[in-house]
Amino acid sequence: MKRAGFVALIGEPNAGKSTLLNRMVGAKVSIVTHKVQTTRARIRGIAMTGETQIVFVDTPGLFQPRRRLDRAMVAAAWGGAADADVVVLLTEAHRGVTEGVETILEGLGDIAKGRKVALAINKIDRVRPEALLGLAEDLNARFGFAETFMISAEKGHGVDALRQWLAGELPEGPWLYPEDQIADLPLRMIAAEMTREKLTLRLHQELPYQMTVETESWEERKDGSARIDQVIYVVRDGHKGIVLGHKGETIKAVSRASREELNEFLGRKVHLFLKVKVRPNWLDEAERYSQMGLNFKDGNA
Q: Helix, strand or coil for residue 79?
């Protein structure tokens, strides 16, 4: 009997949701960086487990929103949880019960009605077993989790047990996507996310979240390769200089790294062209939000 359904991964920023998603799916469909709040859109990664198709919704991290973009991201996260068949709360073993986790637990009450919520304690290699057990007991005392899993998304420990449990909890029914599909994001958005990841890794703290990447055009060539043109939007002229770097060194390095990853991901040659544009108000433009898979109206105060 076939099964299929949606699983929402929720948690604080940088808890390891994107790493877990990529581990479950077996391919890189969500950007992974050491910066928090890097996932903006609700990215669906698709994993096959026996006769079950698990569609993962990798939501933005839940945090205290301050700007329109923040509010839209948090709304997308809770919306992803409310639309799912099963919810998995991911926490970091070494951080314990933070204020952010407590806030999430408070918001889970309505979400839990009609669906199971599992707890996955991530990064278990960073703490002693007795501390891990104490954390699990504390969290389960605060909320009635259906199951608790101890995992390392980065190393793969405990991930199979979580995947098997999820497969058994999803409803019976036909698969929602073709068997060989791993994500329902358009390739144009995946390509833009890959470039944004390379920028984030390269620039570190210099350009926190005041930039975005969009794929302007995608041309299939007769030789089987693809030409991809992307634009990087920043809010200030000074930010443009940071992205370009001395004699264009930064943008060249970003373009090279993104192109190499796209070559591998697509299995063919990619010609990638990047340009930088200053748009002071892109954070308040509805079109930018739709490009990121977010609802502009959700950003209203």
A: helix
pLDDT attached to residue 197: 86
- From CA 276, how far away is CA 199, in angstroms rounded? 12
| pLDDT value of position 10 | 85
Domains and CATH numbers, the chain: 3-169 (3.40.50.300), 187-299 (3.30.300.20)
* Range 259-284 average pLDDT: 90
Helix, strand, or coil (residue 117): strand
Tell me how far apart the terminal alpha carbons of the chain are, to the nearest angstrom. Answer: 46
CA distance 152 to 154: 5
Contact call for residues 30 and 45 (beta carbons, < 8 A): yes
Question: Please, are residues 207 and 243 in contact by the beta-carbon 8 Å criterion?
Answer: yes
Residue that is written with structure tokens 């808890």 in the block:
15
pLDDT mean over 210-237: 90
Question: How is residue 218 written in tokens?
Answer: 């995608």
Please answer whether residues 195 and 230 qualify as being in contact, where contact means their C-beta atoms are separated by less than 8 angstroms: yes
Quick check: 20 and 157 in contact, CB under 8 A? Answer: no
- Over residues 245-269, the mean pLDDT reads 92
C-alpha to C-alpha distance for 257 and 278, rounded to whole angstroms: 23
Residues 6+ apart with CB under 8 A from 220: 226
Q: Which residues, other chains included, contact 6 with Cβ-Cβ below 8 Å and sequence gap of 6+?
A: 44, 55, 56, 57, 83, 84, 85, 86
pLDDT of residue 36: 47
Question: Max CA-CA distance within the chain?
Answer: 61
Residue 222 reports pLDDT greater than 70: yes
* Confidence label for 193 from pLDDT (cuts 50, 70 and 90): confident
Q: Which residues contact 296 (CB under 8 A, 6 or more apart)?
A: 72, 286, 289, 290
State how far the Cα of 261 lies from the Cα of 191, in Å rounded to an integer: 9
